[in-house]
Design brief:
The protein is α+β, with helices and mostly antiparallel strands. 20% of the residues lie in helices and 24% in strands.
């Protein structure tokens, strides 16, 4: 709930949308919107998604995860244990990152989505890591078949893990952006792969903000 409120308030500020305007778009009273944003009332999952759509964020969706509580308190299960809102983003393809949003996924058939508590700045999407170029012998290591979440609106500065694509390549590549001696390079975490000089002709598609493995 807190993450949803933070996201909605930030988008309202960015678009200069008042509570009155948002209420009109959603089809309810300004007071009702105010109650939600101050946590005096709990909106339903459906209402939370209606607000996201009204703010032009229909590429996001709040979902609910149902799980067995780890801890029962004297007065029952706490709200955070009962309700666990997440955002979901589509799993895209290395040949056309961020393009798979409607229709069938080229690999999985029906569109595939994965949940996370990260609320993106832009139209985020997941990729499934292919190969071992980002598998490191120590430290940060992202192995093959792990899911990585890419946010196109996060600034690609040195030190970030990025998804980039060269104009003569049919597929995107996953590397770490570094700067040495005034030059920028795309560097694999696996030292057996070569680093490549980064130039302006290379397009940065987005920054990797999260990685997760499925078992």
């Amino acid at each position: 709930m807190d993450k949803w409120i933070e996201l909605v308030k930030a988008k309202m500020s960015e678009l200069k949308v008042t509570q009155e305007i948002l209420a009109e778009r959603v089809g309810m009273s300004q007071g009702g919107i105010g109650h939600w944003l101050t946590k005096r009332r709990q909106p339903s999952i459906e209402d939370m998604n209606r607000v996201l759509q009204a703010l032009g964020m229909d590429y996001l969706e709040v979902a609910m995860v149902i799980r067995e509580p780890l801890l029962l308190q004297d007065d029952g299960i706490s709200l955070t244990e009962k309700y666990n809102p997440y955002f979901r983003y589509p799993v895209s393809d290395w040949r056309e990152p961020a393009e798979v949003r409607d229709g069938e996924h080229p690999v999985y058939g029906k569109p595939r989505f994965e949940l996370t508590d990260y609320h993106a700045r832009g139209k985020a999407f997941w990729l499934v890591v292919a190969g071992d170029a980002m598998t490191a012998p120590s430290g940060v290591s992202i192995a093959e078949d792990m899911l990585i979440l890419v946010d196109p609106d996060v600034e690609a500065v040195p030190g970030k893990l990025v998804i980039a694509q060269w104009p003569d390549s049919t597929e995107a590549t996953f590397r770490k952006l570094i700067e040495e001696g005034g030059q920028r390079y795309l560097v694999p975490l696996n030292p057996t792969y070569p680093k490549v000089l980064y130039t302006e002709v290379c397009r940065i598609i987005g920054v990797v903000v999260q990685a997760t493995a499925k078992f």
